[in-house]
């Protein structure tokens, strides 16, 4: 749902007034997805301003991610894109798969659970390396700064478009998984059941995830890989896997285009005690 746009405050240059007007048309629905936006020449005539000011107004809306086009193409209202819905149920579904047979675990992947893309329509790669831990990761894992971690970089592309639909970097202290040498082998990816099943093979059960979310400006290379329009930031999600002993045993950093992800947070509250005092006006 789009918020009602606010007009630019103060003494407003004409290009911002033009942008405010078109933005209101988009949010109200009077200009719908893929509808053409007036050209710079048309706007200049309507607003009695220079073509340069009209182009500046269109640039404002492009940088907001509201319109697309240009370089010989008529600018249009940006159409909606397929969205990923990330909820607490997603990681519980992954955990439920851990104790299932291998053929069942192999049939469902992260891209299918989040992006709704069947596994056979994706191309998945994994790159493993053992690296020295950084001070930041040592603090996250509460371990000495001289240990090694397994770094795993995962990428999933949609075959039909060639665009990236999932990317993450995962870290696990090597000492935690030394009991199963297979966990150091990238050629065994994709691992049926994901990292929760990998940890299960060395006796570790995940009890909860702790996540933090920030946003970054994508580079031109990021925009090309993801197919991101101007004005759309990347969300950076750090997930900490905490085991039943309260240890952070795995940490992953994943990125998502902000226009394609709904992060759904459910916060449970304790109930008032039975027989609690009812509301009385003035009390």
Automatic annotation (TrEMBL):
Keywords: DNA-binding, Transcription, Transcription regulation. GO terms for biological process: negative regulation of DNA-templated transcription. Transmembrane segments: none annotated. It comes from the Bacteria. Signal peptide: none annotated. Residues 12-80 form the HTH gntR-type domain. This is GntR family transcriptional regulator. It comes from Actinoplanes lobatus.
């Amino acid at each position: 749902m789009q918020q009602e746009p606010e007009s630019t405050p103060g003494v407003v240059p004409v290009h911002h007034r033009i942008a405010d007007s078109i933005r209101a048309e988009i949010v109200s629905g009077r200009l719908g997805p893929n509808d053409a936006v007036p050209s710079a020449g048309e706007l200049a005539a309507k607003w009695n301003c220079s073509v340069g000011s009209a182009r500046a107004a269109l640039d404002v809306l492009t940088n907001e991610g509201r319109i697309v086009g240009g370089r010989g193409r008529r600018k249009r209202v940006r159409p909606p894109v397929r969205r990923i819905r990330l909820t607490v149920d997603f990681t519980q579904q992954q955990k439920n798969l851990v104790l299932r047979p291998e053929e069942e675990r192999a049939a469902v992947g992260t891209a299918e659970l989040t992006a709704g893309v069947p596994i056979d329509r994706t191309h998945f790669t994994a790159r493993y390396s053992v690296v020295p831990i950084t001070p930041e990761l040592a603090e996250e894992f509460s371990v000495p700064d001289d240990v090694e971690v397994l770094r795993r970089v995962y990428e999933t592309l949609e075959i039909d478009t060639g665009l990236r639909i999932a990317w993450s970097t995962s870290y696990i202290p090597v000492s935690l998984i030394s009991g199963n040498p297979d966990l150091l082998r990238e050629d065994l990816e994709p691992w049926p059941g994901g990292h929760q099943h990998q940890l299960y093979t060395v006796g570790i059960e995940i009890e909860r995830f702790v996540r933090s979310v920030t946003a970054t400006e994508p580079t031109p290379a990021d925009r090309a890989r993801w197919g991101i329009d101007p004005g759309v930031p990347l969300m950076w999600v750090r997930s900490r896997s905490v085991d039943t002993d309260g240890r952070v045993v795995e940490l992953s950093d994943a990125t998502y285009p902000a226009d394609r992800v709904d992060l759904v947070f459910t916060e449970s509250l304790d109930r008032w005690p039975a027989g609690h005092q009812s509301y009385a006006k003035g009390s």
